[in-house]
Amino acid sequence: MDAECDASRRRDDPGAGRGIPTITNVWDETRGRTRRLTVLPHNPVDMSGSTEGDLTKTGMALKHDREWDYELDRILEAIEERDASKVGLQFPEGLKRRGPKVADDLREVAPDDVTFMLSGQPCYGACDLDTYLMRRTDVFVHFGHTPMKESDSIVYVPLFSNVDPFPIMEDALEEELASPEEDADVGLVTTAQHMNRFEEMTDWLEERGYEVHTRRGDDRLTKEGQVLGCNYASADIDAEQVLYVGGGKFHPVGLAMEHPDKRVVIADPVNNAVSVAEHDQFLKQRYAAVHKAMDAEKWGVIFCTKIGQGRWETAQEIVDNNENAYLITMDEVTPDRLRNFDMDAFVNTGCPRITTDDGPRFHKPMLTPGEYEAAIGEKPLDSIEFDTFHDTW
What we know:
flat, 11 helices, 3 domains, 24% helix, Rossmann fold, 15 strands
């Protein structure tokens, strides 16, 4: 998701979010005591696709104002249903600075005996859950992503955006997409934050003469047309051009690397920019890393212990077939943590974006499993493909 999102519900704005909650005392016969019940004003669901967020007028230096729906009412319902006394809140890196304000809003309306704990562990996706905190809380809330695997023990709050995508989509049609007369087939993909407008975006393109191709992908993806930084199965469609609607280039560049035969047009409604995803520099970087690792004798094979990033069979196979390969287990894969290992090169079986995006930061070559096969001569260099994840846990 976007790293630069700024959101919380403002208590000093009586019109913010879903309104001002009220608290009433009710007798709980099953527990033999009085409980505080939180009542939030009812707002009808807006079927147009826009959402009532928890923040208005952020004052941020953005092309468009943004508000995000933290779904505080759903969190409070979970607290009350489970009679929770401990609640864990996990935010992705770009949202951690908003965590205390969200906790403040919840503390204001939750029972006094509820403790809110903010996860300080790194978080870059739904694959990156704080399992330690999960086991020690009655309610665990994960913000910023859709479920990678449904679980009754986790409350997922995807943080839908209210940014209007259609002006920048119009620009993309004028500047980069082939016209319907030239090529009517177009794929459409986006991220979790804009899934609430996906059907509208599909209809919008069809109204302009395009044949829109979409699919859900595999089990790692929750919604049709959704892409992750490690999975672009939703772009496996019969179209040579794909329109990505979302903020930043992290996702579309990965898509272009996974599908080098497709032209990926970026319509960024957050930064109000249109561009085409380029992957040539990435390929050059990866070829260089493989060449550098061809002389390696000692290999460190990394198995990531994060709940959604482990590929044990892959790591085990490499170690079983190479007597000079050593299995290294770790949760957060960083250059500093690997510097003290006396290895000539590493193979990362965890998150593939660590290898592709952060590879140059490591002191020794860091390869994907497929690149490792090329480095040891098991397959030709030109057969290298972008490494992706297609399982849950």
